[in-house]
């Protein structure tokens, strides 16, 4: 079991780190698209600069997310070949769709958006960022369809020692995946909104010259974060209706439910321990719910405060608290992910394939080496991402290169 535990730890660290990049990318991309839409309709120079500033932060995080995603998917073949051989025809199909969307469509249109500033018609340029946002949502959709199958296998038939897809519609309509999609997208909007509000509060507290710029940005962030917390909590509540019996019993610490779930699995698969780690399930769930409760009440109070312009520009204690809140949505997201994934153990495909059976034929020494390598790579990427985001955010909009025009370039008004 040492080898399996090491491989699980490796995937947990890499997948969890990548998930945090994804959450900020989804949230910021949507906010940037909304701000650019307003700038395009109204011709507001402030919102055009807001689009460039927040867009550059989004691009930094997106680039690091792509790198971590590639590294994470590499280890599916490295450590989990048993899973791909057994269920690759189902969850692998969704992963293939995600790869096509993220690495071909999304990245292509993002490149056009980055290099199309001052070269494309303003409406065409706006359309590009919305295509990027929609393909980002599609990418998350296919990832969660894949994960939903692992949580609640549907639309399959067992042929020999492999699963074959029999109903693609059932795979896509899997309720476990459908609820999770909206829950994750809502959480991503909370991450993006609080990030925007926190960075803006930092500049307002320091009395930088861009007071109007960051006052507007703070209001956008809070105006998104508050309803997003309600949206996320709603679909999180619906998600409890799709829990596996063992996870549900672990969450409520129901001894009879745990015993019944264990007995059912023993009858179907023979002797073994088929219960999830109760402590991890409860800790993940409670941390997620407490973090979102704090975010909801703080966002509600911030929404009321932002209605008064003197407070937006002069309430320094509020500014400090807003900036300090930036990590909390990330904590809530990773705690929810722990709750979801730990509650599935010891199954890689719930009720069909255990994690031990999903392992590749590798030794503990090989997994230790790859664990050290993956952790080192991800630690470096996280530090670089944090440094680049913090550096760009501190410098403010005047230091942003995205969308800059050469000195001899025509006015944007002439290129519309």
TrEMBL record:
The chain crosses the membrane at residues 20-41, 53-71, 91-115, 127-145, 180-199, 220-240, 286-308, 320-339, 369-389. InterPro entries: Cyt-d_ubiquinol_oxidase_su_1 (IPR002585). It is found in: Cell membrane. It is an enzyme of class 1 (oxidoreductase). GO terms for molecular function: electron transfer activity; heme binding; metal ion binding; oxidoreductase activity, acting on diphenols and related substances as donors, oxygen as acceptor. GO terms for biological process: aerobic electron transport chain. Its EC number is 1.10.3.-. The keyword Heme applies. One of its GO terms (cellular component) is plasma membrane. It comes from the Bacteria. It is a multi-pass membrane protein. Keywords: Cell membrane, Electron transport, Heme, Iron, Membrane, Metal-binding, Oxidoreductase, Transmembrane, Transmembrane helix, Transport. Belongs to the cytochrome ubiquinol oxidase subunit 1 family. PANTHER family: CYTOCHROME BD UBIQUINOL OXIDASE SUBUNIT 1 (PTHR30365:SF15), CYTOCHROME D UBIQUINOL OXIDASE (PTHR30365). This is Cytochrome d ubiquinol oxidase subunit I. It comes from Nonomuraea muscovyensis.
């Amino acid at each position: 079991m040492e080898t399996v535990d090491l491989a699980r730890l490796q995937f947990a660290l890499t997948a969890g780190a990548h998930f945090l990049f994804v959450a900020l990318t989804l949230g910021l991309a949507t906010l940037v698209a909304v701000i650019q839409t307003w700038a395009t309709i109204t011709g507001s120079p402030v919102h055009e600069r807001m689009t460039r500033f927040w867009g550059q932060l989004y691009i930094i995080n997106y680039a690091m997310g792509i790198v971590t995603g590639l590294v994470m998917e590499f280890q599916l073949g490295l450590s989990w070949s048993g899973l791909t051989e057994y269920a690759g025809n189902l969850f692998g199909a969704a992963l293939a769709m995600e790869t096509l969307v993220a690495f071909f469509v999304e990245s292509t249109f993002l490149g056009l958006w980055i290099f199309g500033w001052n070269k494309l018609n303003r409406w065409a340029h706006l359309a590009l960022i919305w295509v990027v946002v929609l393909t980002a949502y599609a990418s998350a959709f296919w990832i969660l369809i894949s994960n939903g199958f692992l949580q609640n296998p549907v639309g399959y038939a067992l042929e020999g020692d492999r699963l074959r897809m029999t109903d693609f519609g059932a795979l896509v309509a899997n309720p476990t995946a459908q609820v999770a999609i909206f829950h994750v997208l809502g959480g991503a909007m909370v991450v993006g909104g609080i990030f925007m509000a926190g960075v803006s509060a930092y500049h307002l507290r320091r009395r930088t010259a861009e007071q109007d710029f960051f006052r507007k940005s703070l209001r956008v962030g809070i105006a998104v974060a508050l309803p997003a917390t309600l949206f996320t909590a709603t679909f999180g509540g619906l998600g409890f209706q799709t829990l596996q019996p063992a996870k549900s019993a672990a969450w409520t610490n129901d001894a009879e439910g745990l015993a019944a779930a264990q007995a059912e699995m023993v009858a179907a698969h023979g002797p073994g321990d088929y219960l999830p780690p109760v402590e991890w399930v409860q800790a993940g769930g409670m941390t997620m719910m407490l973090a979102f409760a704090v975010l909801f009440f703080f966002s509600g109070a911030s929404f009321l405060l932002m209605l008064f312009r003197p407070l937006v520009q002069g309430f320094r204690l509020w500014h400090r608290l807003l900036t300090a809140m930036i990590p909390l949505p990330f904590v809530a997201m990773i705690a929810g992910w722990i709750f979801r994934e730990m509650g599935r153990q010891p199954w890689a495909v719930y009720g069909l394939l255990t994690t031990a059976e999903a392992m590749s034929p590798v030794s503990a020494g090989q997994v230790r080496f790859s664990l050290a390598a993956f952790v080192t790579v991800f630690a470096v990427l996280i530090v670089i991402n944090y440094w680049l985001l913090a550096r760009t955010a501190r410098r403010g909009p005047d230091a942003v290169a995205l969308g800059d025009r050469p000195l001899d370039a025509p006015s944007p008004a002439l290129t519309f």
